[in-house]
Predict the structure of Phosphatidylinositol phosphate synthase.
Amino acid sequence: MFRGLRSFMTTVFTPLARLLLALRVSPDAVTIAGTVVVTTIALTLFPTGHTLVGGLLVGFFVLFDSLDGVMARQAGRSGPWGAFLDSTLDRVSDGAVFGGIMLWFVLHPDEHHGLWGIGVALACLVLGSVVPYARARGESVGATVQVGIAERADRLVLALVPFTFLQVGLPVVVLEVVLTLLALASLVTVFQRIATVRAQITRQAVDPPPDPHDDPRDGPPAVRGA
């Protein structure tokens, strides 16, 4: 849903990326700093009810999520280490965001349907980790797993928007409905990726790739003892 925005932000961040690199700031430092800031905000401001300022700040840093990647490409340092670090720390940030939302429900037991909110926030937290794991594990066995209706940016933005405006009067039920839909979309995405990996592995088993040592010009193999 937000791939077009990511492309736009990449263009916007190019001058900033060049400036940071000129100041000898590494892409890894930006990745780590962003994770620390988002995690701190989500686990302090969210549970204590500062949803407006907390949501706006986290949303601001979510927009900067691609800055480290732009810097790595500018510096010619794109590679498996940066991808691994970014993906790993993304799970920390995501867990903090949905964990902070869940703690808000826990610390506001007077809200209607509070248990519903706790449950769906927890479901988003768990399934939000399973979705990228399914892709990573599928790709580790040779599958291409670029399917799903609930990608990371979609989940974060759709959860943050209603949560942010709770403090200015948005009904809590709106947040609960959105989290429920996000949990269901994440579950569908998990099953989509499982089905995709299974289909590809089954196809490979039925039609294995040709052996590079076999030369079709040699004709059929000789029968021993013929």
Notes: Residues 221-226 have pLDDT under 50 and may be disordered. Residues 1 and 198 are 26 Å apart (CA to CA). The chain has eight helices and no strands. The two ends are 64 Å apart (CA to CA).
